[in-house]
Design a protein that fits this description.
There is one protein chain. By secondary structure, the chain is an alpha/beta fold. The mean pLDDT is 94. Helix 12 (321-327) links the parallel strand 15 (305-308) and strand 16 (330-333). The two termini are 26 Å apart. It has helices at 41-45, 94-97, 111-118, 149-152, 162-165, 171-180, 198-209, 222-229, 243-249, 272-282, 291-299, 321-327, 342-350, 369-377, and strands at residues 2-8, 11-16, 28-37, 56-57, 61-69, 81-84, 87-88, 125-126, 143-146, 154-155, 190-194, 214-219, 234-237, 258-261, 305-308, 330-333, 362-365, 386-389. It contains 14 helices and 18 strands.
Length: 401
Protein backbone atom coordinates (compact mmCIF):
# COMPACT_ATOMS: atom_id res chain seq x y z
CA UNK A 1 0.00 0.00 0.00
CA UNK A 2 0.96 3.67 -0.25
CA UNK A 3 1.65 5.61 2.95
CA UNK A 4 3.15 8.90 4.13
CA UNK A 5 6.39 8.21 5.99
CA UNK A 6 8.40 10.39 8.39
CA UNK A 7 11.98 10.34 7.10
CA UNK A 8 13.55 12.87 9.45
CA UNK A 9 13.13 16.51 10.41
CA UNK A 10 11.59 18.48 7.51
CA UNK A 11 11.32 15.36 5.36
CA UNK A 12 8.28 13.18 4.67
CA UNK A 13 7.76 10.96 1.64
CA UNK A 14 5.14 8.71 0.11
CA UNK A 15 6.33 5.13 -0.27
CA UNK A 16 5.04 1.63 -0.88
CA UNK A 17 5.00 -0.38 2.36
CA UNK A 18 3.51 -3.73 3.44
CA UNK A 19 -0.22 -3.78 4.12
CA UNK A 20 -1.16 -3.95 7.83
CA UNK A 21 -2.38 -7.23 9.27
CA UNK A 22 -4.42 -8.23 12.30
CA UNK A 23 -2.10 -8.64 15.27
CA UNK A 24 -4.66 -9.23 17.99
CA UNK A 25 -8.20 -10.68 17.99
CA UNK A 26 -9.57 -7.24 18.95
CA UNK A 27 -8.07 -5.54 15.86
CA UNK A 28 -9.73 -4.41 12.66
CA UNK A 29 -8.26 -3.32 9.34
CA UNK A 30 -9.74 -0.19 7.75
CA UNK A 31 -9.43 0.82 4.11
CA UNK A 32 -8.89 4.57 4.43
CA UNK A 33 -11.20 6.72 2.31
CA UNK A 34 -10.12 10.15 3.60
CA UNK A 35 -7.31 11.40 5.78
CA UNK A 36 -6.00 14.82 6.81
CA UNK A 37 -2.86 16.60 7.94
CA UNK A 38 -3.22 17.95 11.46
CA UNK A 39 -1.44 20.96 12.89
CA UNK A 40 0.13 18.66 15.46
CA UNK A 41 1.65 16.63 12.60
CA UNK A 42 3.75 19.70 11.91
CA UNK A 43 5.44 19.29 15.30
CA UNK A 44 6.65 15.91 13.97
CA UNK A 45 7.76 17.43 10.68
CA UNK A 46 9.69 20.11 12.55
CA UNK A 47 11.34 17.58 14.84
CA UNK A 48 9.89 18.74 18.15
CA UNK A 49 8.35 15.44 19.26
CA UNK A 50 10.99 12.91 20.36
CA UNK A 51 11.19 9.19 19.52
CA UNK A 52 10.15 9.35 15.88
CA UNK A 53 11.91 6.75 13.72
CA UNK A 54 12.67 6.88 10.02
CA UNK A 55 9.90 5.09 8.16
CA UNK A 56 7.12 5.72 10.72
CA UNK A 57 3.71 6.08 9.06
CA UNK A 58 2.13 9.45 9.89
CA UNK A 59 -1.47 10.53 10.35
CA UNK A 60 -4.11 10.40 13.06
CA UNK A 61 -7.14 11.93 11.32
CA UNK A 62 -8.69 9.29 9.07
CA UNK A 63 -11.83 7.32 8.29
CA UNK A 64 -12.84 4.56 5.96
CA UNK A 65 -14.39 1.12 5.52
CA UNK A 66 -13.79 -1.95 7.65
CA UNK A 67 -12.29 -4.70 5.47
CA UNK A 68 -11.22 -7.24 8.11
CA UNK A 69 -12.01 -7.88 11.77
CA UNK A 70 -10.42 -10.06 14.45
CA UNK A 71 -12.40 -12.89 16.03
CA UNK A 72 -13.12 -10.91 19.22
CA UNK A 73 -14.57 -7.84 17.47
CA UNK A 74 -18.28 -7.74 18.22
CA UNK A 75 -19.63 -4.36 17.14
CA UNK A 76 -18.05 -3.93 13.70
CA UNK A 77 -18.30 -6.00 10.56
CA UNK A 78 -16.74 -5.92 7.12
CA UNK A 79 -18.27 -3.13 5.09
CA UNK A 80 -19.01 -0.77 7.98
CA UNK A 81 -18.11 2.87 7.37
CA UNK A 82 -16.25 4.21 10.39
CA UNK A 83 -14.46 7.21 11.84
CA UNK A 84 -11.54 6.43 14.14
CA UNK A 85 -10.53 8.66 17.11
CA UNK A 86 -6.92 9.77 16.98
CA UNK A 87 -6.24 8.29 20.40
CA UNK A 88 -6.40 4.58 21.15
CA UNK A 89 -8.34 3.36 24.18
CA UNK A 90 -9.04 -0.06 25.63
CA UNK A 91 -12.48 0.85 26.98
CA UNK A 92 -12.05 -1.26 30.13
CA UNK A 93 -9.42 0.39 32.37
CA UNK A 94 -10.47 2.72 35.15
CA UNK A 95 -9.70 5.83 33.10
CA UNK A 96 -11.72 4.65 30.08
CA UNK A 97 -14.59 3.68 32.35
CA UNK A 98 -14.63 7.27 33.64
CA UNK A 99 -14.62 8.70 30.12
CA UNK A 100 -10.97 9.76 30.30
CA UNK A 101 -10.10 7.87 27.12
CA UNK A 102 -6.89 9.75 26.33
CA UNK A 103 -5.49 8.59 29.69
CA UNK A 104 -6.03 4.90 28.84
CA UNK A 105 -3.77 2.65 30.90
CA UNK A 106 -3.56 -0.20 28.40
CA UNK A 107 -3.05 1.24 24.92
CA UNK A 108 0.48 2.62 25.17
CA UNK A 109 3.04 -0.22 25.21
CA UNK A 110 5.82 2.37 25.51
CA UNK A 111 4.43 4.13 28.56
CA UNK A 112 7.71 3.76 30.45
CA UNK A 113 9.46 5.80 27.75
CA UNK A 114 6.95 8.62 28.24
CA UNK A 115 7.21 8.36 31.99
CA UNK A 116 10.99 8.64 31.82
CA UNK A 117 10.71 11.82 29.73
CA UNK A 118 7.87 13.53 31.57
CA UNK A 119 8.51 12.14 35.03
CA UNK A 120 4.91 11.06 35.44
CA UNK A 121 2.42 8.49 34.25
CA UNK A 122 1.75 8.79 30.56
CA UNK A 123 -1.30 9.04 28.33
CA UNK A 124 -2.63 6.33 26.06
CA UNK A 125 -1.51 5.41 22.57
CA UNK A 126 -1.93 7.63 19.51
CA UNK A 127 -2.02 6.77 15.83
CA UNK A 128 1.03 7.95 13.93
CA UNK A 129 2.47 10.08 16.70
CA UNK A 130 5.87 8.80 17.80
CA UNK A 131 7.04 5.79 19.78
CA UNK A 132 6.49 7.81 22.93
CA UNK A 133 2.80 7.25 22.30
CA UNK A 134 2.98 3.61 21.31
CA UNK A 135 4.63 3.56 17.91
CA UNK A 136 1.34 2.84 16.12
CA UNK A 137 1.23 3.21 12.34
CA UNK A 138 -0.86 6.19 11.29
CA UNK A 139 -3.72 6.72 8.89
CA UNK A 140 -2.10 8.75 6.12
CA UNK A 141 -2.12 5.50 4.22
CA UNK A 142 -4.41 3.28 2.17
CA UNK A 143 -4.97 0.86 5.05
CA UNK A 144 -4.52 1.01 8.81
CA UNK A 145 -4.73 -1.42 11.70
CA UNK A 146 -7.15 -0.30 14.42
CA UNK A 147 -6.48 -1.82 17.88
CA UNK A 148 -9.40 -2.19 20.32
CA UNK A 149 -11.68 -1.85 17.31
CA UNK A 150 -14.90 -2.25 19.30
CA UNK A 151 -13.96 0.86 21.30
CA UNK A 152 -12.30 2.92 18.57
CA UNK A 153 -14.51 2.26 15.57
CA UNK A 154 -17.54 4.56 15.35
CA UNK A 155 -19.97 3.58 12.63
CA UNK A 156 -21.29 6.35 10.38
CA UNK A 157 -24.73 5.26 9.25
CA UNK A 158 -25.82 8.44 7.51
CA UNK A 159 -25.05 9.50 3.96
CA UNK A 160 -23.06 12.53 5.10
CA UNK A 161 -19.93 12.89 2.93
CA UNK A 162 -16.51 12.13 4.39
CA UNK A 163 -15.61 15.81 4.61
CA UNK A 164 -18.45 16.47 7.04
CA UNK A 165 -17.55 13.66 9.46
CA UNK A 166 -13.77 13.22 9.03
CA UNK A 167 -12.93 15.87 11.61
CA UNK A 168 -14.83 13.99 14.32
CA UNK A 169 -11.58 12.03 14.60
CA UNK A 170 -9.72 14.96 16.17
CA UNK A 171 -10.01 18.67 15.52
CA UNK A 172 -13.75 19.11 16.07
CA UNK A 173 -13.81 17.24 19.42
CA UNK A 174 -10.51 18.88 20.37
CA UNK A 175 -11.91 22.35 19.78
CA UNK A 176 -15.17 21.43 21.49
CA UNK A 177 -13.48 19.98 24.58
CA UNK A 178 -11.34 23.12 24.82
CA UNK A 179 -14.48 25.26 24.88
CA UNK A 180 -16.36 22.90 27.19
CA UNK A 181 -13.45 23.06 29.66
CA UNK A 182 -14.19 26.77 30.06
CA UNK A 183 -17.58 26.11 31.72
CA UNK A 184 -19.05 29.01 29.75
CA UNK A 185 -21.95 30.88 31.34
CA UNK A 186 -24.47 31.29 28.53
CA UNK A 187 -25.06 34.84 27.42
CA UNK A 188 -22.49 36.28 29.80
CA UNK A 189 -18.99 35.00 29.27
CA UNK A 190 -16.43 36.25 26.76
CA UNK A 191 -14.02 33.68 25.31
CA UNK A 192 -10.77 34.53 23.55
CA UNK A 193 -9.03 31.96 21.35
CA UNK A 194 -5.34 32.25 20.51
CA UNK A 195 -4.63 30.64 17.14
CA UNK A 196 -7.05 30.62 14.18
CA UNK A 197 -5.84 27.33 12.74
CA UNK A 198 -8.23 24.38 12.45
CA UNK A 199 -8.46 23.64 16.20
CA UNK A 200 -8.82 27.33 17.00
CA UNK A 201 -11.61 27.67 14.42
CA UNK A 202 -13.49 24.75 15.97
CA UNK A 203 -12.84 25.99 19.50
CA UNK A 204 -14.28 29.39 18.61
CA UNK A 205 -17.38 27.95 16.93
CA UNK A 206 -17.83 25.50 19.81
CA UNK A 207 -17.72 28.40 22.27
CA UNK A 208 -20.53 29.96 20.25
CA UNK A 209 -22.47 26.69 20.34
CA UNK A 210 -22.02 26.61 24.12
CA UNK A 211 -23.52 30.07 24.48
CA UNK A 212 -20.60 32.50 24.85
CA UNK A 213 -21.75 36.10 24.72
CA UNK A 214 -18.76 37.03 22.61
CA UNK A 215 -15.90 35.09 21.01
CA UNK A 216 -12.66 36.77 19.97
CA UNK A 217 -9.93 35.04 17.98
CA UNK A 218 -6.28 36.12 17.76
CA UNK A 219 -3.94 35.35 14.87
CA UNK A 220 -1.78 37.11 12.30
CA UNK A 221 -2.95 35.53 9.02
CA UNK A 222 -5.75 37.51 7.30
CA UNK A 223 -7.35 34.48 5.62
CA UNK A 224 -7.71 32.70 8.97
CA UNK A 225 -9.15 35.78 10.63
CA UNK A 226 -11.57 36.24 7.72
CA UNK A 227 -12.76 32.64 8.05
CA UNK A 228 -13.53 33.22 11.72
CA UNK A 229 -15.20 36.56 11.03
CA UNK A 230 -17.59 34.85 8.60
CA UNK A 231 -19.04 33.06 11.64
CA UNK A 232 -19.51 36.28 13.63
CA UNK A 233 -16.31 35.89 15.64
CA UNK A 234 -14.44 39.09 16.48
CA UNK A 235 -10.80 39.15 15.38
CA UNK A 236 -7.50 40.63 16.52
CA UNK A 237 -4.38 40.64 14.36
CA UNK A 238 -1.56 40.64 16.88
CA UNK A 239 0.87 42.06 14.32
CA UNK A 240 -1.29 45.16 13.98
CA UNK A 241 -2.49 45.64 17.55
CA UNK A 242 -1.12 45.12 21.04
CA UNK A 243 -3.08 42.00 21.83
CA UNK A 244 -3.29 42.55 25.58
CA UNK A 245 -4.59 46.09 25.17
CA UNK A 246 -6.99 45.06 22.40
CA UNK A 247 -8.48 42.29 24.55
CA UNK A 248 -8.96 44.68 27.47
CA UNK A 249 -10.67 47.21 25.22
CA UNK A 250 -12.96 44.50 23.85
CA UNK A 251 -14.02 43.43 27.35
CA UNK A 252 -14.53 46.67 29.21
CA UNK A 253 -11.06 46.49 30.75
CA UNK A 254 -11.67 43.17 32.48
CA UNK A 255 -10.16 40.71 30.02
CA UNK A 256 -11.83 37.61 28.55
CA UNK A 257 -13.51 35.35 31.10
CA UNK A 258 -11.83 32.35 29.49
CA UNK A 259 -8.90 31.99 27.11
CA UNK A 260 -8.12 29.04 24.87
CA UNK A 261 -4.53 28.43 23.74
CA UNK A 262 -4.97 26.60 20.42
CA UNK A 263 -1.37 27.22 19.38
CA UNK A 264 0.90 25.11 21.54
CA UNK A 265 4.64 24.70 21.44
CA UNK A 266 5.50 26.49 18.18
CA UNK A 267 4.00 29.90 18.99
CA UNK A 268 5.12 32.97 17.13
CA UNK A 269 4.86 36.49 18.50
CA UNK A 270 6.95 39.49 19.33
CA UNK A 271 8.75 41.03 22.27
CA UNK A 272 11.71 39.89 24.36
CA UNK A 273 9.96 36.75 25.61
CA UNK A 274 9.21 35.47 22.10
CA UNK A 275 12.77 36.18 20.95
CA UNK A 276 14.24 34.40 23.94
CA UNK A 277 11.88 31.43 23.47
CA UNK A 278 13.05 31.05 19.89
CA UNK A 279 16.73 31.29 20.80
CA UNK A 280 16.41 28.82 23.67
CA UNK A 281 14.46 26.35 21.54
CA UNK A 282 17.12 26.42 18.83
CA UNK A 283 19.79 25.79 21.47
CA UNK A 284 17.73 22.91 22.93
CA UNK A 285 17.45 24.82 26.22
CA UNK A 286 13.66 24.59 26.17
CA UNK A 287 11.10 22.41 24.43
CA UNK A 288 8.42 25.01 23.83
CA UNK A 289 7.82 28.54 22.59
CA UNK A 290 5.04 29.74 24.88
CA UNK A 291 4.11 33.21 23.66
CA UNK A 292 0.45 32.26 23.18
CA UNK A 293 0.24 30.65 26.61
CA UNK A 294 1.94 33.66 28.18
CA UNK A 295 -0.56 36.01 26.52
CA UNK A 296 -3.42 33.74 27.56
CA UNK A 297 -2.46 33.98 31.23
CA UNK A 298 -1.81 37.71 31.13
CA UNK A 299 -5.07 38.53 29.32
CA UNK A 300 -7.47 36.24 31.17
CA UNK A 301 -9.86 37.86 33.66
CA UNK A 302 -9.59 37.09 37.36
CA UNK A 303 -11.15 33.75 38.25
CA UNK A 304 -11.09 32.69 34.62
CA UNK A 305 -10.02 29.55 32.80
CA UNK A 306 -7.03 28.95 30.58
CA UNK A 307 -7.88 25.98 28.37
CA UNK A 308 -4.99 24.41 26.45
CA UNK A 309 -5.75 22.11 23.50
CA UNK A 310 -2.46 23.12 21.88
CA UNK A 311 0.27 20.50 22.19
CA UNK A 312 3.24 21.08 24.51
CA UNK A 313 6.32 18.92 24.55
CA UNK A 314 8.12 19.35 27.84
CA UNK A 315 9.66 21.91 30.16
CA UNK A 316 8.87 25.62 29.72
CA UNK A 317 10.54 28.81 30.79
CA UNK A 318 9.28 32.28 31.80
CA UNK A 319 5.74 31.11 32.52
CA UNK A 320 3.96 33.96 34.39
CA UNK A 321 2.77 31.66 37.14
CA UNK A 322 2.65 34.53 39.62
CA UNK A 323 0.03 36.28 37.48
CA UNK A 324 -1.98 33.07 37.20
CA UNK A 325 -1.85 32.61 40.98
CA UNK A 326 -2.78 36.22 41.70
CA UNK A 327 -5.81 35.97 39.40
CA UNK A 328 -6.91 32.59 40.68
CA UNK A 329 -6.95 31.05 37.22
CA UNK A 330 -8.01 27.50 36.46
CA UNK A 331 -5.97 25.51 33.94
CA UNK A 332 -7.49 22.72 31.84
CA UNK A 333 -5.37 20.82 29.34
CA UNK A 334 -4.46 17.50 27.79
CA UNK A 335 -5.25 15.23 24.88
CA UNK A 336 -8.90 15.10 23.92
CA UNK A 337 -11.14 12.34 25.20
CA UNK A 338 -12.34 12.00 21.63
CA UNK A 339 -14.51 8.92 22.13
CA UNK A 340 -16.88 10.79 24.43
CA UNK A 341 -17.62 13.52 21.88
CA UNK A 342 -18.07 11.72 18.57
CA UNK A 343 -21.74 10.79 18.86
CA UNK A 344 -22.99 14.11 20.34
CA UNK A 345 -21.04 16.14 17.79
CA UNK A 346 -22.24 13.90 14.96
CA UNK A 347 -25.77 14.75 16.13
CA UNK A 348 -24.94 18.45 15.80
CA UNK A 349 -23.68 17.86 12.25
CA UNK A 350 -26.77 15.86 11.32
CA UNK A 351 -28.97 18.62 12.76
CA UNK A 352 -27.23 21.19 10.57
CA UNK A 353 -25.80 23.14 13.49
CA UNK A 354 -22.35 23.07 11.91
CA UNK A 355 -20.72 21.84 8.70
CA UNK A 356 -17.12 20.97 9.65
CA UNK A 357 -15.96 21.09 6.03
CA UNK A 358 -15.87 24.90 6.29
CA UNK A 359 -12.23 24.66 7.35
CA UNK A 360 -10.93 22.77 4.27
CA UNK A 361 -8.78 24.78 1.88
CA UNK A 362 -6.81 22.08 0.08
CA UNK A 363 -7.84 18.69 -1.33
CA UNK A 364 -5.27 16.44 -2.94
CA UNK A 365 -4.02 12.91 -3.45
CA UNK A 366 -1.86 11.15 -0.86
CA UNK A 367 1.08 11.46 -3.25
CA UNK A 368 0.96 15.22 -2.80
CA UNK A 369 1.41 15.02 0.98
CA UNK A 370 5.11 16.02 1.09
CA UNK A 371 4.38 19.26 -0.75
CA UNK A 372 1.31 19.98 1.32
CA UNK A 373 3.05 19.38 4.65
CA UNK A 374 5.29 22.33 3.84
CA UNK A 375 2.49 24.43 2.34
CA UNK A 376 0.48 23.93 5.54
CA UNK A 377 3.42 24.59 7.86
CA UNK A 378 4.52 27.72 6.05
CA UNK A 379 0.90 29.02 5.71
CA UNK A 380 1.35 29.39 1.96
CA UNK A 381 -1.51 29.62 -0.52
CA UNK A 382 -4.00 30.42 2.24
CA UNK A 383 -3.66 26.90 3.58
CA UNK A 384 -5.77 26.16 6.66
CA UNK A 385 -6.69 22.47 6.32
CA UNK A 386 -5.57 19.71 3.97
CA UNK A 387 -7.63 16.60 3.15
CA UNK A 388 -5.95 13.75 1.29
CA UNK A 389 -7.47 11.01 -0.87
CA UNK A 390 -5.36 7.85 -0.43
CA UNK A 391 -6.62 6.45 -3.70
CA UNK A 392 -6.50 9.57 -5.87
CA UNK A 393 -4.05 10.42 -8.59
CA UNK A 394 -1.72 13.36 -8.11
CA UNK A 395 -2.64 16.35 -10.21
CA UNK A 396 0.92 17.68 -10.03
CA UNK A 397 1.09 21.16 -8.57
CA UNK A 398 -1.46 21.51 -5.78
CA UNK A 399 -3.62 24.62 -5.60
CA UNK A 400 -6.14 25.82 -3.09
CA UNK A 401 -9.48 23.98 -3.33
Amino acid sequence: MKAVLWQGTNHVSVETVPDPTLLLPSDAIVRVSSTAICGSDLHLLDGFIPSMEKGDILGHEFMGEVVEVGRDVKTLKVGDRVVIPFNIACGTCDYCQRGLFSACDNSNPNHRMAEALYGATSGGGLFGYSHLYGGYAGGQAQYVRVPFADVGGFKIETDLPDEQVLFLTDIFPTGYQAAENCNIVRGRDVVAVFGAGPVGQFAARSAQMLGAAKVIIVDRFPERLRLAAEAGIETINYEKEDVLIALKEATGGRGPDHVIDAVGLEAHGHGPGALLDTAQQKMKLTFDRITALRWAILSCAKGGTVSMPGVYGGLVDKLPLGAAFAKGLTFKMGQTHTHRYIRPLLAHIEAGDIDPSFVITHRAALADAPQLYKTFRDKHDGCIKVVLNPWGESAGEVKRA
